[in-house]
Amino acid sequence: MEKKEFKSESKRLLDLMINSIYTNKDIFLRELISNSSDALDKVYYKSLTDKNLKIDKDDLVINLGFDKDSKTITISDNGIGMNKDELVDNLGTIAKSGSLSFKESMTEEEKKNIIGQFGVGFYSAFMVAKKIEVLSKSVDEDVAYLWESEGVDGYTIKKADKKTRGTTITLYLNDDDEEFNYSKYLDEYELKSLVKKYSDYVQFPIKMEVTHSKLKEKKNKDDKDEYEDVKEIETLNSQTPIWKKNKNDVTEEDYNNFYMDKFSDYDKPLKVITTSVEGLTTYKALLFIPSHAPYDYYTKEYEKGLSLYSNGVLIMDKCSDLLPDYFSFVKGVVDSEDLSLNISREMLQESRSLKIIAKNIDTKIHNELKDMLDNNRDKYIEFFQTFGTQLKYGVYNNYGMDKDKVSDLIMFYSSNKEKLITLDEYVKDMKENQDKIYYISGESLEKVKNMPQVEMVKEKGFDILFLTEYVDEFAITALQKFDDKEFINIEKDVDLDSEEEKEKLKKTNEKNKDLLSSMKDIIKDVSEVKFTNRLKKYPVCLTTKGDVSIEMQKVFDSMPNQMGIKAETILEINEKHPISKKIKKLYKEDKKSFDKYTKILYSQAKIIAGLPVDDASEISNLICDELSK
Fold first, then answer.
1. Which of 229, 445, 595, 614 is packed most tightly, with the most Cβ within 10 A?
2. What CATH number is given to the structural domain containing 322?
3. DSSP secondary structure code for residue 38 in this structure
């Protein structure tokens, strides 16, 4: 027997794992199964060039077992095996084991990120085991060796008995403590679940003896049904992932069933997207657009991301770096040969291959949605009504840096067509003398249709986009222009009058400047009061100037931490409405009634705009006073 010490960097890693608490100890099984899969790959490819080595690929297998009495787990394979020197090289140093190279400047938080979620090869077993035995026989030698270690102190190697090639790893689990229940790994269901989650697509069968309850054979027909527990060898993994199968061999039902099972959805997806790329970066992706939003989609608890695999082995359940926020509703998997299984969070985020994959997936999703918009309008409308808010959010998120990536996918309600249209469709149908895109915001479609400001624009024949979601106006503000056409909020002071009308209105306001100034003094909240030609049947309306509209103010007011951001409002009075003559008369003859009318008109304008009236009782009394005259 030889006793050896681990190399210094290995000691650091082992000490870190054994004496620290990490977030995901479960990955030890994934790592050991992946090592076994590599060993099976190696012996199979060796047999292709070695005439003396005859191996049937169907005979290659990984066996998993556990013993509750001895508190052990075993993982064995009939792969290429290791000789004495290979055991020292592969299990005695980090580099050879495929684990991470350490950096001298690593912080404790960085160390936790490395071990907590990502693979560290063979060494991950020390997260759950107090002692590890590796019994291995190389395909090229007749002698087997037993490697044993209890952690940082080092390891021993001695000759051992093993008749067949391959490797058997035995883990002696840690004792349970207050912080972790290691005995959970001695449970049949738990081991099956871990294999299904992390190693379901390993290409070789992973087998384990499992217990099934079966109906006993009856001695007599009238005997009652009795069941007994029967132990059977069962293959735990499905081996070939659906995204690696030939498309012609996969049905729509197969994709739907995979989606509903993997992502726990009760309904089939709205759309399935498949893509396979070979070149500088090679990967396969299977993506799904859900038919409905998850229950927690618009909560802080929702996590975006695609399942990331390396050659069929799960690296990360939800890799958020693969999806931009505006496509956060997409579910799916990405499998790449270019990503190492043993990778830290920091290395993954900096991975050039991952960034290329993410960019390609972004483009692929966009193109598929655009194709749906162009060729299957009803289906796209169904999608947009579910996830359109998220696309609009993507326009102004990230300081508007991504606005051009989804602006061709967003839709708004058209006043002329009375249905949802794209911005491109709005621009194509613009009148010859129109050079701006008009819109107005409101709480609902019905309310927006009846806004006073809509009248004059519609009379001119211009289409108006009705914005009814809180996110809409922020998205439009971030876009600023589309196809070089400026967005104009008709809630603001829109100039659609002829020169003659402008001049006439200017004289009217100048002539009544004292009246208007008196009204402003009574109201105080508005920045200006003026007569207008924009209204037809309505007596008054509120318009704004500046960057903040009334609808934006409502959004700010609804936030938990109100910032006190207010719209700068203007009270506009219909110069052609009978109320105009009335207030002019009251200003000259009855200042008391003039004050009352001013307050009533302002309250009416606020109610139309959907703003609260400060003192509803006062306004109610004022109206009753005037009605009773």
1. 595
2. 3.30.230.80
3. H
* Phi-psi domain of 189 (left: phi exceeds 0; alpha: psi -120 through 50; beta: other): alpha
- Whether 426 and 485 have beta carbons less than 8 Å apart is answered as no
pTM of the model: 0.76
3-class SS at 361?
A: helix
Q: Read off the CATH number of the domain in which 446 is found.
A: 3.40.50.11260
How far apart CA 206 and CA 64 sit, in angstroms, is 7
198 and 289 housed in the same domain:
no
Q: What pLDDT shows up at residue 169?
A: 97
How many whole angstroms separate alpha carbon 597 and alpha carbon 627? 12
* Cβ(601)–Cβ(452) below 8 Å: no
CATH number reported for the structural domain that contains residue 619 in this entry: 1.20.120.790
Q: How many CB atoms lie within 10 A of CB 131?
A: 15
Query: How do residues 457-480 score in pLDDT, each as one tens digit?
Result: 888 889 999 999 989 999 998 998
Nearest CA among 383, 428, 430, 444 for reference residue 409? 383
Single-letter amino acid, residue 216? K
Q: Do 185 and 333 belong to one domain?
A: no
What pLDDT does residue 18 have? 60
**Inter-residue contact 166 to 137 (CB < 8 Å):** yes
Q: How far is it, in rounded angstroms, from Cα 214 to Cα 162?
A: 35
Same domain, 350 and 443: no
Output the average pLDDT for the chain.
86
At 379, the amino acid letter reads: K
Q: ∠ at Cα 580 (576, 581), nearest 5°?
A: 105
**Whether residue 255 is found in the same domain as residue 230:** no
What is the model's pLDDT at position 20? 55
Same domain, 203 and 311: no
Three-class SS of residue 211?
strand
125 with 247, same domain: the answer is: no
Question: Which residue reads 């005259």 in tokens?
Answer: 629
Q: CA-CA distance, 566 to 325, in Å (whole number)?
A: 29
For residues 540 and 575, what is the distance between their CA atoms, to the nearest angstrom?
9
What percentage of the chain carries pLDDT values higher than 70? 90
CATH number of the domain residue 172 falls in = 3.30.565.10
DSSP one-letter string for 66-94? EETTTTEEEEEE-SS---HHHHHHHHH-H
Q: Which range (80-84, 102-106, 318-322, 441-445) has the least confidence?
A: 102-106
65/191 same-domain check:
yes
CA 63, CA 207: separation in Å to the nearest integer? 5
Cβ–Cβ under 8 Å, residues 61 and 75: no
Cβ proximity of 603 and 621 under 8 Å: no
Tell whether 397 is covered by a domain.
no
Query: 3-class SS at 13?
Result: helix
Per-residue pLDDT of 499-531, as tens digits, reads 888 899 999 999 999 999 999 999 988 999 999
Residue span of the structural domain in which 309 resides: 242-381
Count of structural domains, the chain: 4
